[in-house]
Amino acid sequence: MIMYTMMPEELIFPMSQDIYEKQQVINYNGIPLLVAKNEANEFEVVRVLSTDPSDFLHTGMQPGTKIPNI
Asked: Which of 15, 16, 28, 46 lies 20 to 30 Å (CA to CA) from residue 8?
């Protein structure tokens, strides 16, 4: 089945509530990040929430990067 829509995937197929409960917003080196805590007690970057375009160029803050628990 093919679904043609302009709606984002998250609205059509929402994730379960427990995934959202693991996420939180932190400030890391002055950059706001949406992170999720994993089993190793580390934060994994989900999304960069900054409005400064240069913050998206930091390799240590890209989605999927692991950050030690602060």
From this structure: 28
68 secondary structure, DSSP code: E
- Determine contact, residues 50/56, Cβ cutoff 8 Å: yes
pLDDT tens by residue, 29-39: 899 999 998 88
Cα dihedral sign for 27, 28, 33, 36? negative
Sheet architecture: strand order including 31-37: 23-28, 31-37, 42-48, 66-68
pTM comes to 0.73
In Å, how far are 19, 51, 57, 62 from 54, measured between CA atoms? 29, 9, 5, 12
